[in-house]
Each structure stands twice: as structure tokens, then as C-alpha cells.
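Worked example 2:
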Amino acid sequence: MQGWQFWIDRGGTFTDIVAHAPDGRLISRKLLSENPEHYQDAAIQGIRTILDEHASDAIASIKMGTTVGTNALLERKGEKTALLITQGLQDCLRIGYQNRPDIFALHIQLPELLYATAVEVTERVNAQGEILTPLDKEDCHEKLHRLKQQGYKAIAIVLIHAWRYPDHEKAIAELAKAVGFEQISLSHQVSPLMKIVGRGDTTVVDAYLSPILKRYVNQVCNGIRDAEQNPDLMFMQSNGGLIEASHFQGKDCILSGPAGGMIGAVKTAAASGIGKLIAFDMGGTSTDVAHYDGQLERETETEVAGIRMRV
């Protein structure tokens, strides 16, 4: 491949960069992820430094794992989010599944909700797709307008049975666009599966983190463009696969860093003939531990920082 390849792990404390030169050499750098007095973005700064040192400027590809979304979730620093849900189900996600991990606990501490407010929408579709209560668009528009005036920029739209009959969610999304919401997450797109709690939680996570993620992705893209480059830019997802920057979403970023580390550990161990291992990555913000017994395990439902996700 012509040009440089950059493989980057953007953590909460440090950013690690491995550069693969056109002649096959490997060069590594480590920078503070946040150092506003010296640079805006650690990944772009590291790329520029390496290219300047080697009097080169041709970049072929950049592949990046990031804990930007993970850290925003752990520290509860996502976008201010509102939940729009079918009338009568306002407390549905707070109630959840009533799981009791510690059955004898007398003082149960519920995790902090990601959405700041929940608003009920007048509508109801049954499991067969029959409209029991038509969508009240006028009332919905007024509620969306009030939310926008209150400073909300992100909304999660979660309607019952929308995974199969999404028309009402689509109609609300059109109203939200007209009002001016910047992030609109629809449950039938984010997690098109039955069970409103898992689907709803995942949609809220997506609305809560996607704006943070988009700002970071745009920051990286702008830095590359400033350097008059147009390389392939791909991000590691929680499932261990890469995706183009423009399609990278909040719901898919939570385990971006840990998944990249696990895939790398498995490949490295295989090169040495090792088929079983424990991977341990202690960072400045979070620590990731994983075990591998010869095959990768995949889970569609998981919990991170008290938040359920289903992807």
C-alpha cells in the first residue's frame, strides 16, 4: 500500500500511535490525550509529528479505537437527552426488568439515568400493527418545541412495538427535524428487536453519546483535511470490526478500545502458538480485562456502568 498507515488507540489519559511506513518500518508515539496548551487533538498531533520527522505527507489509512464514548458514559458527560415514549410508559426504563443482582441488599442504589426527562407521546399501536390511538402530531410538536426551548439537543424516540411498526417513530422524527434537534435516535433503527426496555435503553445510549462521538470524529476529520489529506478513516466498534467514520454511532462505541485490544491480543498470541489467554489493559481512566478460550464470545446484551445495551 502506498503511503503511511496509522493505527491509533485514543484513551482517556494517553493516546498511543503506531505508524506503518511505506518501507515497512514501525514507529510508535505516546501523547497525552488532553493537552490543549500544545495541541487540539492528540491523534492528529502524533500523525503530524511522525510525518514531519520523516519528511513525508502521504497517508493511506487511519484506523482508530477510542474510549471517548466509554469515558463519557462512565463519567456521565454525554449530551443532555430527552426520552419520548408511548403514553403510559414514562417510567418503563426506570423500572426496567426489576433485576436484583444482590438479592439480600437492603439499600438498593439504582444507576443514574442517562435521559434528563421523559415525555409521553399520545399514540399506541398493538403487536399486530393496528392503530389503537392515532399519533397526535400537534401535541407532539408542542412538546418537542418545549424541549428545544429547555435546551435539549438530543432525543431518543422509543415507541411500543416500533421495532415492527415504525411509522409513528418516523413521523415524530420528521417533526423533531423541523423543530431543530441535532441528534434524533429512533429505536427501530438503533435496536430493531422486541422488548421495549432493552431497545429503549440502547436508543437512549445512542442519543446520549452520538453527539460527543460526532464532535470527536469531526475534529479528527477536520485535522486531516487541514493537512490536505483524504485517507481512509475507520473506527473500531464494540464488535471488534472496523467501520467508516461517517457511520460510527454512539451505541457501537462503548467497547471500541477494549474490543481492539482483545482482537490484537488474540492475533498476537496466535502468532506465538498460544490459544488461551487473559488480556489486561490498565489505562488512566478505566481498566479492561478479558479472557479468551480459543474462540471469541459475542453477546448481544450487556451492561456497562449500570446501563443496559443491546446491539
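The longest strand covers residues 59-66. The mean pLDDT is 89.
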